[in-house]
Each structure stands twice: as C-alpha cells, then as structure tokens.
Design brief:
heterodimer; A: 274 residues; alpha/beta; Rossmann fold; 2 domains; 13 helices; 8 strands; 11% strand; B: 160 residues; mainly alpha; 47% helix; globular; binds iron/sulfur cluster
Chain lengths: 274, 160
C-alpha cells in the first residue's frame, strides 16, 4: 500500500494528541507512509450524533469517503468509533439506490461517491506487518506487563461488516500484544463494552459497566489494560476508581520499539503506569 | 420485503423506516437481552424494546429506555434472525430526537459539531500538547465548514 490518509478523528487530536504522537512514531518506525486528511470532520460518531441524525451521518461520511476515493488512498483510522462510522457508511453505500440518493445530496457541494474507498484500522495495519518483522524491531520487551485486552466493541461488531476479527474469541489484539513481549492474562471470548457510550448520559450505568470490566481484569491478575480505542482509553483512564492503568495500542508498541515515556507523553495519563 | 403491521403509536415516517428493517423477523426469543451490558444494570431491556417497537406501544416523545443503550452492538451480533436491534434503536432515537426527546449531553455535542466540525472542544491544552509533539495545528477550514453546513441543513440534524 502506497501511503494512507491518516484520519485521527476528533477525540484524539483535540484531547489526546499524545496518542497521535505514539501512532506516528510506530508507523514511521515500520515504514508505513501516510499523509494528512485536512478535509476531515467529526465522523458523526455512532453513539450520540448518529442517534440524532442518521441521514446527516450518511451524508457527512459519504463526503469524506468521496474525498478519499478521489485521492486514491486508503483511510487509516486510530479510533473504533470513526472506524465503525466509516465502515458502516461504506457498507450502506454499496447499495446502488442508497448511493444514488446520497449522491444527490453530495452534488450540492460538487462531490460524488462511486463506492471505491477503503477504510483500515490501525490494529489491522499492525497485524499485517507480521510477527517476525515486528518482533525484530522490539528493543524493549514489555515483559513486566500482564495485560487485560479490551479490543472495544466497534472494531469487532458487526463482524460481517468490519471484518477485522472473529466476533467470538478474537485473536488479533492478542497476537500484536504478544509480539511486544507482554503477557496476556485476560482476553474475553465475547468482547465487552467499556460503558463509555453512556458517560454523561447515564453515569450510574456507565460506571457499573466499567466496573464489571475492571473486576474481571483484576481477578485475572492484570496490571494493565490494552485497547485500540481512544474512547475506551478515556473511560478506563479517567473514570475508574483506584483502577488499573491503560495503554492505547500504539503506546504499547512504541514502548516496545524503544520510545521513551516522555517522547510519547505517558505523563498525560491520569492513571500512571508504574 | 414484508411490511410490519404497526399500531398507531408510531408515526408514519418512523413506520416507514422500521418497515425497511428486519424487525418483522423478531420472534421475541430474548437472546439479545443477556448479552446487553446495560440490561444487567437495569438499563435498556432489549427484547422488550423490540416488542414495543413491533407493536407500536411506545411514546417516543417521552421514552427514556431507548437512551440507555450504549450502542455496543452485542444484541445485533447475537440475534440469529438478523433483526439488528441496535439499528432499530438508532432509528427510534432519531424519531425521538425529532420530538424533542434527547439527552442534554448529545444536544450539546451536536451544537459543538455544527459550529466547529468537531465533537470535542479544542482548548489551550490541545494547542500546547500538539506543539509539544510537533503535530500540525488542528484546524477545520472555512471551506470544509461551508460544505458541512450545506450538507446537514436539509437533514434531521439540521432541523434540530
Ligand atoms: S431481536 Fe433477535 S434476539 Fe432479540 S428477541 Fe428478537 S429475535 Fe430474539
Ligand atoms: S447495542 Fe444497546 S441494546 Fe444492544 S446489547 Fe448493546 S447496550 Fe444493549
């Protein structure tokens, strides 16, 4: 693949730029090339905004898919929410009638989508690098980590649309984690939800769901959580009480590749990694 | 595609949208509920919401239960009949929002999105951190904002 359009969404670039820094560090080390996606807006995230305006969601994402298509590059995503939003829109737009209707809206701004964009998640791209290549680049094995894996709902379900991993007993995140020398102590067969989607809407339920996760991670003997989703990252980092530290996927890989904690901004975590 | 017979509780536009779905396949087996992380804590009862959507026994201007779904897609993945409850709930929420029934949190998010193109505020800390990590400044251009405004003006979001 000759270069991606790097779409970091809005949570990462505005509140968690350090996750963008570690992602770029890892991509650079692996020789994966990318360029910015300056026309990007919020993906009309699939929990709140899409619930208010399904029709606007499809139009706004179709606009970005049409831009990616005209550039002839795949879009690389750092966020599960964005990934679900783009993949489901691309899937809906495979239907010619839907595409026709949406293109009537896009014509208003002089754009058209033909159905040719491809969307990839960072987790998929890292998986494709392959274990031998990645392992050969590990200079600081993360063997003190006993990880609880949390892929997050929106890189797994709906499996038939996202096509990243199995919906029952997924393996991809475990594969990548084990290449860094870390030990995996917890990997749910049916990946759990972090509860983040109800934060600010129903905080009691949101926290109760979060606690279900943390209890099971602790019972498994984990000393850290690993996730490829910035929304889950925020839920774990900010809202746990006396909780476990959490690493975003690119942070774990960057540390294993020898990045210093300062370089990738680990100091910005609320719950510190010892 | 077979149409669902709905009682008058749900209005025409919504009936139309729901009739495009596979809701008619639901035979109330209840497999969607035990996988629901919210149901376990007294939030949404997925099977019952599917029942109420099928029969029209729902007042969308007031219903609070539909807003207790965390959109994890577990129910949709589990349903063996392809009903896709999470999508049904999304459309129910759309119709509810049109009737003024929406959580304040999402209403605020929408304001931010419509005015800035982003759903999170850019703050001083954003700029400081982006500089610290030599990341380009985060900016949605006026041209992009103009396209966004034109796109959403005719949609349900634009009407909210
Ligand atoms: S939505 Fe599916 S799983 Fe849920 S009750 Fe209906 S048929 Fe069963
Ligand atoms: S998508 Fe909503 S209703 Fe379905 S299992 Fe998840 S929280 Fe429950």
């Amino acid at each position: 693949m000759d270069g991606y359009l790097l779409y970091s969404g809005c949570l990462i670039p505005s509140r968690l730029p350090f996750l963008e820094a570690s992602s770029r560090f890892v991509l650079d080390r692996l020789g994966v090339t990318y360029e910015p996606f300056p026309e990007g807006t919020c993906c009309v995230e699939p929990i709140g905004l899409r619930s208010l305006g399904y029709d606007a969601w499809l139009l706004v994402v179709a606009r970005m898919l049409s831009i990616a298509e005209s550039r002839g590059k795949d879009v690389l995503m750092l966020c599960n929410g964005c990934f679900l939003s783009f993949k489901e829109a691309a899937h809906a737009l495979e239907d010619e009638r839907v595409r026709h209707r949406v293109n009537q809206g896009l014509a208003e701004i002089g754009r058209e989508y033909h159905g040719g964009a491809r969307v990839r998640h960072l987790m998929e791209v890292l998986q494709e690098v392959g274990s031998s290549r990645m392992e050969s680049m590990v200079t600081a094995p993360q063997d003190r980590l006993r990880l609880a894996l949390h892929p997050g709902c929106h890189v797994i379900r709906p499996a038939k649309v996202l096509r990243v991993d199995a919906h029952y007993s997924p393996r991809v995140l475990a594969d990548i984690a084990s290449r860094t020398g870390a030990q995996v102590v917890s990997n749910d067969a049916w990946p759990r939800c972090c509860g983040g989607g109800l934060a600010g809407v129903d905080d009691r339920i949101s926290s109760a769901i979060l606690q279900d996760n943390v209890d099971s991670f602790k019972a498994a003997g984990a000393n850290c959580i690993l996730t490829p989703c910035p929304f889950c990252f925020v839920q774990f980092d900010l809202r746990q009480k006396q909780g476990l530290p959490v690493l975003y996927l690119s942070e774990l890989v960057a540390l294993a590749f020898g990045a210093s904690p300062e370089l990738i901004g680990l100091k910005y975590h609320r719950t510190k990694l010892e | 595609m077979r149409k669902v017979a709905l009682r008058p509780g749900l209005e025409d536009e919504l009936k139309d949208a729901l009739s495009q779905l596979e809701l008619w396949r639901c035979h109330q087996c209840g497999q969607c509920t035990p996988v629901c992380p919210s149901a376990r804590h007294g939030g949404i009862r997925t099977r019952e919401v599917m029942e109420r959507a099928s029969t029209g026994a729902m007042d969308l201007s007031m219903d609070q239960e539909i807003w207790k779904c965390v959109m994890c897609n577990s129910c949709s993945e589990r349903c063996q009949l392809g009903v896709d409850p999470a999508h049904v709930i999304t459309l129910l929420r759309n119709a509810a929002a049109q009737r003024g029934n929406r959580p304040e949190h999402f209403a605020e998010e929408l304001k931010l999105f419509a005015s800035s193109g982003m759903s999170f505020p850019r703050t001083g800390l954003t700029r400081k951190m982006r500089k610290e990590f030599s990341l380009p400044e985060l900016d949605v251009s006026e041209g992009t904002m103009e396209e966004l405004r034109r796109l959403i003006s005719s949609t349900r979001l634009g009407r909210l």
